[in-house]
Design a protein that fits this description.
170 residues, two-stranded antiparallel sheet
Length: 170
C-alpha cells in the first residue's frame, strides 16, 4: 500500500541549530532586551521595588496596591462588610464601628463605640499591612473579639477590600 523510501532523508548539517533549535541567545540583541524590559517596568512603576542587601525586595503595601482592584473591593465590602460597618463621614456605628479615617488611626480609638478589651489593648495602628493581617483572621490572638466575621481567606480579596478602603475612608 505505502512504499518504503529507499533512503531516510536527513536534514542538511547545521539545519537543526539554525532553525529548529533557535534560542534567544542567538537573537541579535542577545539577553540585553530582557534587561531593558525589566528596567522599563521598574521605571514606569515607581516605589514598587527597593534594592537591599538581599537584592530586589517588593514592599508589601505597594504590592497590595498594585494587585488590587478597588472596584472589586467595593463589591466585596458591600456584600460582606457594609451590614456591620459604614465608611461615610459622620455615618453611624452599626454592629461594628464607622471606618472613616481608619488608616493611621489607633485600633479601638473611637469613643462612641464599645470595643472589646482585647482590641483596646492590642496597640494596633491601622495600615495596609495590619489591616491585611486582621482581615485574614480577626480572632487570632484575641479570644474575646466582638467581630463575628471569620475573616477573608483570599489574599486577593483582602487586597481589593483594602484598596477600596484606602479610598473610601479618607
Amino acid at each position: 500500500m505505502f512504499s518504503q523510501p529507499d533512503r531516510i532523508s536527513i536534514p542538511p548539517r547545521g539545519f537543526r541549530s539554525t532553525l529548529a533549535g533557535r534560542r534567544m541567545s542567538s537573537h541579535p540583541l542577545g539577553h540585553s532586551w530582557h534587561r531593558a524590559w525589566v528596567l522599563v517596568l521598574l521605571v514606569t512603576v515607581p516605589d514598587v521595588a527597593k534594592s537591599g542587601q538581599s537584592g530586589l525586595q517588593i514592599q508589601v503595601n505597594s504590592q497590595i496596591q498594585l494587585v488590587a482592584n478597588s472596584a472589586k473591593g467595593s463589591s466585596i465590602f458591600q456584600n460582606r462588610c457594609s451590614m456591620c460597618h459604614s465608611t461615610q463621614e459622620g455615618g453611624p456605628n452599626k454592629i461594628g464601628p464607622n471606618l472613616r479615617g481608619l488608616f493611621g488611626r489607633q485600633a479601638a480609638s473611637l469613643p462612641e463605640y464599645n470595643y472589646s478589651n482585647d482590641l483596646r489593648g492590642s496597640g494596633i495602628v491601622w495600615n495596609s499591612q495590619t489591616l491585611d493581617e486582621y482581615l485574614a483572621d480577626p480572632h487570632r490572638g484575641r479570644r474575646n473579639a466582638k467581630m463575628a466575621y471569620p475573616g477573608l481567606s483570599s489574599k486577593t480579596d483582602r487586597a481589593e477590600v483594602i484598596s477600596y478602603l484606602v479610598q473610601a475612608t479618607r
